[in-house]
Structure formats: structure tokens, C-alpha cells
TrEMBL record:
Keywords: Cytoplasm, DNA damage, DNA repair, Glycosidase, Hydrolase. It is an enzyme of class 3 (hydrolase). It comes from Aquimarina hainanensis. This is Uracil-DNA glycosylase. GO terms for molecular function: uracil DNA N-glycosylase activity.
Length: 221
């Protein structure tokens, strides 16, 4: 089955696309996109992989599913295009960077520049119906993204995994901690952050310290 994903990932995940579950997933997604409004745009479903090659992955951030509001999702978890209002979780991410690294609060919410430095911004589910959070969960995307995480864990070394909240921690349970750096904290959503589970985790400086310690360039957050 031909999947429009960057070549570096196609080499790693080619067998996954041949499995029965993935064929069923593709049929489901095509039907959803033809019958109702879904996000992100079809050409952006695999954008996280297009902006960050397999060989360039330094950091993996795991989200749950895409934003479901108009114009928000564009294929990178937590990110929104320039000109789109920042969702609360993204605002809290930038607030943490502001205090952790003394970086000024950015003027927009696009994280493409992170991706192009080697940050894989991976949602567990890559599509969603408009205004229906979680509507494409349990259809096969989670199996696929588990395989992505497992492939990185098995075939790369020295990758920082940022696992925010209970869902992401479960998603990353099989990462080889002997080969990689795993950072965990509460989720940046207001519900978690305002209860003291997000702010002060210093994940961005910790990631850069680790990358520098193994001879890799830091991320310009």
C-alpha cells in the first residue's frame, strides 16, 4: 500500500503499511474524510514525519490526538500554524520555556522550527473529526504510532523522549531507557499545570543538557 510519508520513514516503517490493520485504517480515514470534516488536511496527516527525518530525530514529544477546531491541526502535536490562536496547552509549554531557558514568549504557535531541528512531534492518533475530540481513537492509529516509537527505540540511540501526562507515559512504556533519555511530567493542559504537575519540570533545559553530553547539538527551543 502506497503511503505518502517521507522516504526516510518509509524505509523504516514499510512493513507496517502492509499489515491488515493499516489497510483497514486507511479505508476508515478515507471514508471519514470524504463524508465529514476532518483534521488535519489530508496532505498534512504525516507532516510530523515530513519535517523531521528518521535519521535526524533527537527528541520525541508525544501528544494524544490532533486539535479539532477549525484551522488548528497541521500534523504536528501541540503546534498550530502562524496566525492561529495558541491553545492553552501550547501557551503553558511556552511559559515553561520562558522560565526554564529565559527565552521570550514567541509571537506564534508553529513548532515547525522545532521539527526541522530534530523534534518529532507525534500524536498517538493522527486524524480527528471536526469538533469531536478522540473521534478517531481505537481505529488503528495507536498501533501505528506504537510501532513508530518502538522503531526509534530499537534503531536509534540517545533520543530524548518527553512523556507528558498519563497517556503519554503509557505510550512510552516500552522505550529502552538504557539507550535513551526519558523525561516525564504532568501534562501542560491547564487542568494539570495549574495543579503543579507541569510548571518547573525543566524538560527543555534537561533535554539540551543530555544532548550536549552525548555530543549532539542542542535544540533552539
Amino acid at each position: 500500500m502506497e503511503v505518502n510519508i517521507a522516504d526516510s520513514w518509509k524505509k523504516q516503517l514499510g512493513d507496517e503499511f502492509k499489515k491488515p490493520y493499516f489497510g483497514e485504517l486507511v479505508s476508515f480515514v478515507k471514508n471519514e474524510y470524504s463524508s465529514t470534516n476532518c483534521y488535519p488536511k489530508g496532505k498534512e496527516i504525516f507532516a510530523a514525519f515530513d519535517h523531521c527525518s528518521f535519521e535526524n530525530v533527537k527528541v520525541v514529544i508525544i501528544g494524544q490526538d490532533p486539535y479539532h477546531g477549525v484551522g488548528q491541526a497541521h500534523g504536528l502535536c501541540f503546534s498550530v500554524n502562524e496566525g492561529i490562536a495558541m491553545p492553552p496547552s501550547l501557551i503553558n509549554i511556552f511559559k515553561e520555556i520562558e522560565t526554564d531557558l529565559q527565552r521570550p514568549f514567541p509571537s506564534h504557535g508553529s513548532l515547525i522550527r522545532w521539527a526541522e531541528q530534530g523534534v518529532l512531534l507525534l500524536n498517538a492518533t493522527l486524524t480527528v473529526r471536526a469538533h469531536q475530540a478522540g473521534s478517531h481513537q481505537g481505529k488503528g492509529w495507536e498501533v501505528f504510532t506504537d510501532s513508530v516509537i518502538q522503531t526509534i527505540s530499537n534503531h536509534r540511540e540517545g533520543v530524548v523522549f518527553m512523556l507528558w501526562g498519563g497517556y503519554a507515559k503509557k505510550k512510552g512504556a516500552k522505550i529502552n531507557s538504557a539507550k535513551h533519555k526519558i523525561l516525564t511530567s504532568g501534562h501542560p493542559s491547564p487542568l494539570s499545570a495549574n495543579r503543579g504537575y507541569w510548571f518547573g519540570n525543566k524538560h527543555f533545559s534537561k533535554a539540551n543538557e543530555y544532548l550536549a553530553s552525548i555530543g549532539k547539538s542542542k535544540i533552539d527551543w
